[in-house]
């Protein structure tokens, strides 16, 4: 792994740590707290809207710090690092709507070096080559 890749990962990890300390939880840690039901609504909206128009806003409770995207590959490996050598955390299917925390440059995938750090249940990296963003581009890590 190159020094540049390690630096990108370290910067992203630092940003995550600072964000975790400075902001409240994104997904509902307390299912009884009506102020923090974004994660539940996200999953509900995801299930209701798969196969429908993916370009529309997916609900009122979207966290403004996150960008959104739709998986375009038939099945996309989400990894522990922004490269093909990273451990596979989980798989995302075509049409799945994902939440994007930030983007960084990593290993090139068919000419595209950008990778997105996704926040859906687990933190994992997805190749931007196979994720179409909805709305504004994700911020840099």
Please write out the topology.
Elements: H1 3-22, H2 38-49, E1 67-71, E2 75-79, E3 88-93, E4 97-109, E5 112-118, E6 124-127, E7 131-134
Antiparallel strand pairs: 1-4, 1-7, 2-3, 4-5, 5-6
Notes on the structure:
The chain is α+β, with helices and mostly antiparallel strands and 141 residues long. 23% of the residues lie in helices and 31% in strands. It contains two helices and seven strands, in the order H-H-E-E-E-E-E-E-E. The strands form two sheets. A five-stranded antiparallel beta sheet has the order 6-5-4-1-7. A two-stranded antiparallel sheet has the order 2-3. A hairpin with an 8-residue loop joins strand 2 (75-79) and strand 3.
Class computed from helices, strands and strand pairing: alpha+beta
Shape by Cα distribution = globular
Arithmetic mean of pLDDT: 74
- The assigned CATH architecture is Roll
Question: Whole-number radius of gyration?
Answer: 15 Å
Top-tier CATH class: Mainly Beta
The SSE string, one letter per element, is: HHEEEEEEE
């Amino acid at each position: 792994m190159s020094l540049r890749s390690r630096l990108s990962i370290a910067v992203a990890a630092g940003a995550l740590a600072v964000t975790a300390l400075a902001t409240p939880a994104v997904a509902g840690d307390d299912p009884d707290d009506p102020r923090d039901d974004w994660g539940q609504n996200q999953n509900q909206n995801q299930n209701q809207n798969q196969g429908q128009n993916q370009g529309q806003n997916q609900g009122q409770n979207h966290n403004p710090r996150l960008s959104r995207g739709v998986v375009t590959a038939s099945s996309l490996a989400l990894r522990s690092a922004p490269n093909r050598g990273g451990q596979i955390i989980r798989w995302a299917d075509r049409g799945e709507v994902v939440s994007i925390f930030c983007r960084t440059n990593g290993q090139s995938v068919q000419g595209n070096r950008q990778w997105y750090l996704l926040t859906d249940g687990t933190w994992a990296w997805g190749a931007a080559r196979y994720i179409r963003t909805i709305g504004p581009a994700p911020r840099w890590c």
